[in-house]
């Protein structure tokens, strides 16, 4: 029987590429996101059975209801890819709009918690499962303006490790995939629709592609039972570290 992957934020970027990758490998997909027309367009591209759910991960009741209402053919979920997320703004912490911080916390932390809690019981009952969380290098390394975005991804890293602690012995694996500079709609969202500013982020650099991240997600989700990949941090080849910032005087 074909396995089923549930992907949040499948309307763009990593989520969409991940749906295509699992589909190409013969998996069934449950694709979700807020933009229904994009989900329908993606569904037409997929060869294997796919179930789409217009879903805002911030809506706890909607998340729990959508998982409860999964068609029998798409249940239980074998792999959950908690990918939906965003950065909003790059202002310093003293300048930031608090609504941006709320939005990141509600989506990247609370949305990911709701989806995980909704799907885990069926994995436990089934005696098999894998939760792949999409973290970020921003959760491991600080940068100016990364403030709450990076902190939400640090939550994802630690939550992933703590899930491992809870689920060990139940044949449920957990991985935090932590990409760096990758060209998706991420920067357009961060800069609130400013396409020129977003394009400048990827100008004259060879970034990670969504398919590279999909590849890592698929690889980690298909390791044998005796292996759990805890974390994978992936940077663009052109990306590395700056020295500490020392202000003199
Ligand atoms: P995109 O903007 O291209 O995709 C983000 C996806 O998240 C969209 O499908 C969007 O769907 C979905 N999403 C956002 N908010 C919600 C919500 N409230 N409910 C449901 N879905 C939501 O960016 P990426 O593909 O780059 O981002 C995917 C993940 O990767 C994010 O968690 C991001 O933080 C992380 N990441 C990105 C990096 C990068 O450089 N691109 C690097 C490291 C991590 P819709 O709008 O239709 O709801
Ligand atoms: C996205 C990568 O470095 O722009 O998570 O924060 S970064």
From TrEMBL:
Name the Gene Ontology molecular function terms of this record: oxidoreductase activity, acting on the CH-OH group of donors, NAD or NADP as acceptor
* InterPro entries listed in its UniProt record: NAD(P)-bd_dom_sf (IPR036291), Sc_DH/Rdtase_CS (IPR020904), SDR_fam (IPR002347)
Q: Which PROSITE patterns match?
A: ADH_SHORT (PS00061)
Top-rank taxon of the source lineage equals: Bacteria
Q: Which Pfam families match?
A: adh_short
The protein's UniProt keywords, in alphabetical order, are: Oxidoreductase
Annotated family: Belongs to the short-chain dehydrogenases/reductases (SDR) family.
Q: What name does the UniProt record give this protein?
A: 3-hydroxy acid dehydrogenase / malonic semialdehyde reductase
Q: Which organism is it from?
A: Thalassobaculum litoreum DSM 18839
